[in-house]
Structure formats: C-alpha cells, structure tokens
Design a protein that fits this description.
Blueprint lengths: L5 H12 L7 H11 L2 H14 L7 H13 L3 E4 L8 E7 L3 E6 L4 E2 L17 E2 L4 H22 L3 E7 L8 H7 L8 E8 L6 E3 L2 E10 L15 H15 L8 E8 L10 E10 L2 H22 L2 E10 L6 H14 L6 H11 L20 E3 L6 H5 L4 E7 L10 H7 L2 H23 L1 H15 L21
Helix pairs in contact: 1-14, 2-13, 3-4, 3-5, 3-13, 5-13, 7-8, 9-13
GO molecular function: carboxypeptidase activity
Pfam family, one: Peptidase_M20
Keywords: Carboxypeptidase, Hydrolase, Protease, Signal
Length: 478
C-alpha cells in the first residue's frame, strides 16, 4: 500500500481534486449510508451526554459504543493499553487499514441542562462541555456506515474504530500510541465539535501537566504559628514565581494552574496542598525548556517556606503533525456536503444562546458555511497529536454549537445535548465516511500522505512521549 511511486501519487491525487466540488459520488454515498443511521447517532450522543462520565471513568459510555459496534459485526478488543475504558473495534480485512478515533469523556466542574440560558443541573458534577458525546457517537456511526459500504461493494480494506478515553488531561491516545496500536494503520481520522465547519489544517500546542504536592507541618494557626510550616504557602510561593515567568516565556507558550487542595480550616496550618499545572508550547522541546524552569520554581518555593515538594506527571501531548494532502481531501469532502441549516425552533434557540455572548468571533448564520482552508497554529492541545506522529492523520470540525460558542462553556454543554449538536455530529459522520470511501479507492492519495508524513518527521525520527514511561493515571479525576 505504501510503495507506489510519489510521482504517480501526485498525479492521481491532483486529478482527484479537479471538479470535486461539482460532483463527488463519495459524498452522496456517505450521506445515504449515514442518514439511515441518524437516529442511532442522536441516541448514542444523548446517552453519553446524560451520563457525562469523566476521564478513565467512562464505563457506561465505552460499553455502549462497544456493544453498538459488536452488534454490527465488529470484533472488539476491550481494555487495550492498560486502560479499562479504551477499545479497538475492527471490521473487514486487508489494506488499507483506516482508523477513526472516538472520544467520550466529559469535563468536571461544569454542567448545564439543554436550556438556552444558564441552568446548572443540581447534583451533576460534570458536563459534555467539549462535545465528546457527539465525537464518540458520530465516529461510531461513521464506522458502521463504512462497514456497510465495504460489505456492499466488496471492496478490500479494514475499518477500525478506536475508543479513546480521557482526552481531557488524561492523554488516553498517548498510551494507545505508546502501546503500538497504530503501527499497522494506513490513515487515521478524527473530528471535533466546534462552532464552525472547517477542515483547515490547524496544528496544536504540545503540552504537559503535573500535580505539585507540598508537604508541611500542621499547627494551630493562632496558638502556635511558629511551629507550623504551611504547605499552602509553598503552593502560593510557586504560583507567584510561575506568574512572574509569564513575562519571560515565548509568545506562543501558555501556562495555567488550579489549586486542587489548599487546606480545610483557616485556623489549622495546612500540612498538605496541591496545585495542578499545564505548560504548552508549539513544540515538545519548548515544553521541556519551560518545564525545567517550573520545576525549579517548585523546589525554590519549598525551600523558602520550609516545606517539601514532589510532583507527578499526569499527561503530555505532542503537537499535531499536519498532513496537507489529507487535509485538502477532507476539505473537499466537507465543502461538497456543505454546512448546517437550522429549523425555526433551532434558530430561536440559537438566538437565545447568542444573547449570552460578548463579542463573539462568529455570527449566527455562519453554521451554513464552510470556513476557508488554511494552515495555521491552534492554541489548544490534544492527544491526537501523538497519533499524528505515528500515522498520517487528518481531521475536521463541524458546527455542533451555536456560532460564537467557546469550548468548555455551559453554552457548549447545552447545544451538545440537543438537535443542533446532533446535526453537527451527523455532518461529521458523513464527511468521515466520504473521506474513508475516497481513501479505500485512492491508493495514490495514501501514498502521497505517507511521503509527506515521512518527510515532515525526518529520516531519524524517533517517537518520544511527553509523559515518559508512567502507567495511565486511571485515578487522575478522583
């Protein structure tokens, strides 16, 4: 599959591009296959939205997706890479092997009903604020649609759906990459919920996180303060120095933190405190350089406050390696399918949500468009990055949220649970299916993608995980 001549690859790929917008049979076929399963997509998305299970605890969500795929004839390998909620589902045989990634974890600390105004749900501790319920549902629906296309056409090839837990700070895909689960894959595909439709080739920031744990000496804060050594002082001293570092970091770097434990009573000098840090940079070496300074700040804070500090690396992601050959193909498929149209009820809902925004980047109506293709730096981070250094990888975003919505917001939770989100998931499933059909029929495109991939990685590339050799942090959200 990967031995075709590059010259032939480029020639056939270019021919495939010409006139694609005018007529693209793959998108027509994909729409028919996916639309037959539109109710399935919405049902899966609704259940995972309701459960809102956080990283490495997505037991019901993972089981639902596995059972759905198993019922369609997929062979399931559950609990892969030492992660109980990770799985690989496979159908078909031979090459090419096309992988579709599926996420399903929720975010802690935010929740919202499906209402278009702020309406927290009492007692609910997490929400699908990044739309991963839609991500998992659409990827599974696309996998099933492709499975039926393979059967109906008799085409050779294998489709795999990778159930990838704990994207939000748990780096599930990094452990799956490290375990070699993508070594025989020809192309990997992914998508993500958003407030716009785009297959632009956006890179991401590499990142690493850790929990810094300070240990002091407890004492009565009024009666014997001199006998205490405050672990919280250690955390605050570290944070002060880290905040000073912001002035002296590269322009595209990011660093942020939350205090996850700071004591329980003001009159007790806390003997334990914890702060959770993220560091981001466009490349892995940049993360390493900033990280070394952050560790020094932690050590200095402990020395200055008479405390002791230790830290645990929680997750680490490499940046996305863009594959332009694949990205342009995905952009064509998305443009051939077009954007999303709201019903009158959805328009009224969207107007209510939009009223909560200050200076939104996109206006209502933009969900009907596909954004221009470009190659640019994105400031988020994703564990898809590690997959993209193991195999040529391509993705897209669809307008599952009201234009102007930020990820990790209550507005994203709300739309992810109702028909606007479901429409975006349906568009993603159709686009992924169309792209897979193209790849199964276009060996030259796969070869061109691999030529670009190997050139960008370089002749001496050796994969290195930013989280080292640690085991998956299955309890990091507990």
């Amino acid at each position: 599959m990967r031995t075709l001549l590059l010259a032939a690859s480029i020639g056939i790929f270019s021919t495939g591009l010409a006139g694609a917008a005018a007529a693209d049979p793959s998108t027509d076929t994909a729409s028919q296959l996916v639309q037959q399963r539109r109710a399935l997509t919405a049902d899966l998305a609704s259940k995972i939205w309701e459960w809102a299970e956080i990283g490495y605890q997505e037991k019901k969500s993972a089981e639902l997706l596995q059972s759905t795929l198993a019922a369609e004839g997929f062979e399931i390998d559950a609990g892969v890479a030492g992660i109980p909620t990770a799985f690989v589902a496979e159908y078909g045989s031979g090459e090419p092997v096309i992988a579709i990634l599926a996420e399903y974890d929720a975010l802690p600390g935010i929740n919202q009903s499906k209402a278009p105004t702020r309406d927290p749900v009492s007692g609910k501790l997490a929400g699908q604020a990044c739309g991963h319920n839609l991500f998992g549902a659409a990827s599974v629906s696309a996998g099933i649609a492709i499975r039926h296309w393979l059967e109906e056409t008799g085409a050779e090839g294998t489709i795999r759906v990778y159930g990838t837990p704990a994207e939000e700070g748990g780096s599930g895909k990094v452990y799956m990459t490290r375990a070699g689960l993508f070594e025989d894959v020809d192309i990997a595909m992914h998508w993500h919920p958003d407030d716009e439709n785009s297959a632009a080739a956006n890179t991401s920031l590499a990142n690493r996180s850790a929990k810094f744990r300070f240990h002091g000496i407890s004492a009565h804060a009024a009666g014997a303060p001199e006998r205490g050594r405050s672990a919280l002082d250690g955390v605050e001293a570290m944070n002060m120095m880290a905040n000073m570092m912001h002035e002296h970091m590269p322009q595209d770097a990011r660093m942020h933190y939350v205090i996850t434990s700071g004591g329980n009573a003001p009159n007790v000098v806390p003997d334990y405190a914890e702060v959770f840090y993220y560091v981001r940079h466009p490349d892995a070496d940049g993360v390493d350089a900033i990280w070394q300074r952050l560790e020094k700040a932690a050590e200095g804070a402990a020395m200055g406050t008479g405390t002791r500090v230790e830290w645990e690396i929680i997750h680490g992601n490499n940046p996305l390696l863009v594959n332009e050959a694949l990205a342009r193909m995905m952009d064509e498929k998305l443009r051939a399918l077009g954007g999303i149209t709201y019903t009158a009820e959805e328009q009224a809902y969207a107007e209510q949500v939009a009223a909560s925004f200050d200076n939104p980047a996109l206006a209502l109506g933009s969900q009907e468009e596909v954004q221009p293709f470009e190659i640019s730096l994105g400031y988020g981070s994703t564990d898809v990055g590690d997959v993209s250094w193991a195999v040529p990888t391509v993705g897209l975003r669809t307008a599952t949220w009201v234009p102007g919505t930020s990820a990790h917001s209550w507005q994203a939770v709300a739309a992810s649970g109702m028909s606007i989100g479901h429409k975006g998931a349906d568009l993603a499933a159709r686009t992924l299916t169309a792209a897979a059909i193209e790849l199964y029929q276009n060996d030259a495109l796969i070869e061109a993608a691999w030529e670009e991939f190997e050139a960008k990685r370089g002749p001496n590339y050796e994969y290195k995980s930013l989280l080292g050799d640690r085991d998956p942090p299955l309890d990091y959200r507990r």
